[in-house]
UniProtKB/TrEMBL annotation:
Domain Sialidase positions: 44-366
Name of the protein in question: Exo-alpha-sialidase
Alphabetical list of Gene3D superfamilies matching this protein: 2.120.10.10
CDD domains: Sialidase_non-viral
Pfam families xrefs: BNR_2 (PF13088)
InterPro entries: Sialidase (IPR011040), Sialidase_sf (IPR036278)
Organism name: Rhizobium puerariae
Superkingdom of the organism of origin: Bacteria
Amino acid sequence: MSPDEIESRMDGVLADLGGGRSEAFLPSPTIQNHAAFLASLSDGSLACAWFGGTLEGKSDISIHLSRLAPNAGRWSPASRVSDDPDHSEQNPVLWINGNGELTLFHTSQVSGNQEGSVVKVRLLHQDGEAMGAGDARTLPLDRGTFVRAPVVRRADGALLLPLFLCKAKEGAKWNGSHDTAALAISEDEGAGWRVVHVPGSLGCVHMTIVPLGGSRMVAFFRRRQADFVYRTTSDDGGETWSVPQATDVPNNNSSINAIRLKDGRIALLCNPVSAATSRDRRQSLYDELGEEDDRPDSDGGIEPVWGVPRAPLALCFSSDEGVTFPDRRLVEDGPGTCLSNNSIDGQNKELSYPALLEDADGVLHLAFTFHRRAIKYVRLAPDWLKSA
């Protein structure tokens, strides 16, 4: 499908494909659309946020949001809900706070300098069919902090915000070689935060927490080394974590999403491929920004791998708390080519950065990047899983 063909389908209309599957391409006014995040709202509607602009890292990258009202057949036009003209605003995370208000966390950086990123938070509100945004507040976290995965509320009411820490040597460019995982914990509904680190997590990012009941939790990671999805556990409500270990699911240094289903299984949505299955490589995540930067790449740490294809997209299921995922179902397939972030020339074919929810009826809701041009939404009824 060419970029023009994708654009022609970005009308938000939900199409029933039969067999328990429906899908839509979300409306967006921007050329590039990436990093979807889904949330269920108190009125029964579904919200999807992502970042859009011309190219990841450019200062015109902002957060956008669309809603699917209950029983509606079309997603709403996109609303722009962040507004910094000098920074690239990325990786939205939606959360409903204790007052029932829709809250947006997102990152903010200059160009591709992820080591300088800050995390901002703001309230969102309904303004007719559109969404409006309040003023942004910067969280008191170290520079280089990134977010991607959902906030988890602990049994005692504390908030757990998964982080990954983008680090670079003094005088060098960030390239992912020193990234580690951490968790911000707030006992005052987000006014203040303290950070706990995941030991032995060099190269582990996009920490995604799945509560297991009581104080037990498991979390999963994307890996900069593009080898496997990694797993860690906590028995004390996220205060301490085990050293991450590899699962049996390959990872291509691209985002993952994991949830616990109502039947007790863990569902992992990802690209189950790795650097071992492809020779495709690119220099870095931001190697096409075209901005002058004479700094050398940060050395040491691990060797990050960029450019491994981001397809197929598959649902992987585990019945042993995420140690193994023997049951895997194809959601979308394609070449997955991601040697360029360009959304205009049609070279990018990635199916990546997925979001995943299960509703009260057991229906799965998915959203993901489609060729860096659009956000695609897919709804899977329980019948689809039985027949897939």
